[in-house]
Write a structure and sequence with these properties.
The chain is α+β, with helices and mostly antiparallel strands. The chain has 6 helices and 5 strands. A 5-stranded antiparallel beta sheet has the order 4-3-2-1-5. The longest helix has about 45 residues.
């Protein structure tokens, strides 16, 4: 009788953790991001006597939205080109700016060929064994010239901890593209293959 009681307690406790843990962690991560971005402008606002919770976050997003709208029209595009050229001509600053600009284009770019937008299978290790990775580039490169073939750069994340991984340079004809979304592939990798998207 006592054994059955404690078994139920354990089952209920684990069920509660299963509900609470993902929700609590999600809220915690969201709060960290919110306070970080709110603090960018929020600190300046509070220093001027304006203390409204979340106002810095709202203003920052409005500034980003306005900048995006400005660069979408003809005049804004011309101004952005001038600014971009200026930043590339300033010594030392140009190295940092160009690197950050390339990273931003990789992660925020759009289109089918943008980095991390396509999921693929690549053969690795023994024949017939494949790994799931993200195609980061299909552009012509020195590696392709040396290999004498068009190649794809494929980032293969480590299972469970996708912040690490390694880069494979694979001939394009050996890359097998998958229909699953990057989000589905990431869930599969983080779960070590226990969460597999339906066909």
């Amino acid at each position: 009788m006592a054994t059955g009681f404690w078994a139920r307690v354990r089952r209920y406790y684990l069920a509660g953790l299963l509900v609470l843990a993902p929700t609590a962690l999600t809220l915690w991560v969201a709060w960290i991001f919110f306070t970080f971005f709110d603090g960018i402008l929020g600190g300046e606002l509070r220093a001027r006597g304006i203390s409204v919770f979340g106002l810095g976050f709202v203003l920052l997003n409005l500034i980003v939205l306005v900048l995006g709208a400005l660069t979408a029209n003809f005049l804004g595009k011309r101004l952005f080109v001038v600014w971009d050229r200026l930043m590339h001509r300033v010594p030392l600053v140009n190295k940092v700016y160009s690197t950050l600009r390339q990273i931003a284009e990789i992660f925020l770019g759009s289109g089918e060929d943008a980095a991390f937008r396509r999921v693929a299978l690549v053969e690795y290790g023994s024949p017939g064994t494949h790994m799931v990775g993200f195609v980061t580039s299909t552009a012509a490169s020195e590696a392709g010239t040396v290999l004498g073939a068009k190649v794809c750069h494929v980032f293969v994340p480590s299972a469970v901890n996708p912040t690490t991984g390694f880069l494979l340079v694979v001939p394009e004809e050996k890359v097998r593209y998958l229909e699953m979304t990057p989000e589905q592939a990431m869930r599969m990798i983080v779960s070590a293959g226990s969460i597999v998207p339906a066909k």
